[in-house]
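Thread: quick sanity check before group meeting

JM: Hey all, I'm pulling together slides for Thursday and realized we never actually wrote out the predicted structure for the chain we discussed last week. Dropping the sequence here so it's in one place. If anyone has concerns about the input, flag it before I start.
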Amino acid sequence: MSQENNLLVAASGTGGHIFPALAVCKNLEEYWNIHWLGVRKRLDANFVPHKYDLSTLNINTPKKNIFIVFQYLDILMSTFNIIRILKAKKINLVFTTGGYISAPTIIAAKILRIPVIIHESNLIPGIVTKYFGFLCNYVFTGFKETNSYLKHCKTIFTGTPLREQFYKNNLLPAWVPEGEGPLLVVMGGSQGAKAINEILYESLEFLVKENFRIVHIIGENNKQSFHLKKSNNYVQMEFTDEIAALIQNCDLVISRSGSGTINELIQAEKPSILIPYPYSKNNHQEKNAMILAKIGGSVLINQNKISKEFFEETLKRIFKSKIKNGEYNYEILDLMKKNMKNNNGLKSKNEIKKILNYFLKEF
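JM (edit): ok, ran it. Output follows.
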């Protein structure tokens, strides 16, 4: 590996931005000196390995209020700090995965004439990809349909890379409740989801009575909100790094519909109930969820219309058993599983490593 091959990865905030970038880095370590640009007080320090030389900016997440224009200006002003970082680390390629850190990073790279590539994992492009994608050498897309929203960009469909654990078969963790009942994995992404936690909590008595086994990942932001209810069939956790094993071996996932989750479900061929975050930009979580709902692999539930009764009724329908060939089968669940298996065309392709390595300097 040449000392001249210095890659800056700009990814921050949520698992949806950080995990795809980590997956890319894992494939590039032997070719590139990897440097990481993140934001102070976000999840970055928890997930980014020390070997990736993390630098952080002191900028705040924009909030919708009368000062939003000034908040965006503050983010763009960080371009000057990023220029200094790019020069100091002698960066010769930038890779970013969207989010508000991407805009100043793209501008800084363009000013210094450093090649820059952005990966857009959502079906509907985010603000940065939409308005700054044309400045990038390439825009990698997680879904083929995304290309149609980016007419003035050089787009390449690559799919969204996942953590390494999703590309191998994992055993179910020993701490998961044992038994014959269906296993549900309930989660809300890296930051948790209060609405999903609440509906699960309200329905817990019903779920235990119906012999469901539940792994409930409440998220680190919800520590105080949901007290652990005692049941042999229910396990509650703030976070786990065994998510691939859980998704691969459960019967049904109940989750938000961030792009990372959608791609994990596609890779694991796992049916789901998806409850999109209703305030996501461009309503992208609902658009993401529609990808799996259209193929019959997922049931999409609007958060604003969900109720304890509706949630429980949906689970009853999915897990309604029917005798077939002398055995009990969950007819709807089995059909959802079949629909997920028939969509290999949605899976991620290993294109990113190949394209990034075109920018390697040979000595």
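AS: nice. The chain has a mean pLDDT of 88. The longest strand covers residues 33-39.
JM: adding both to the slides.
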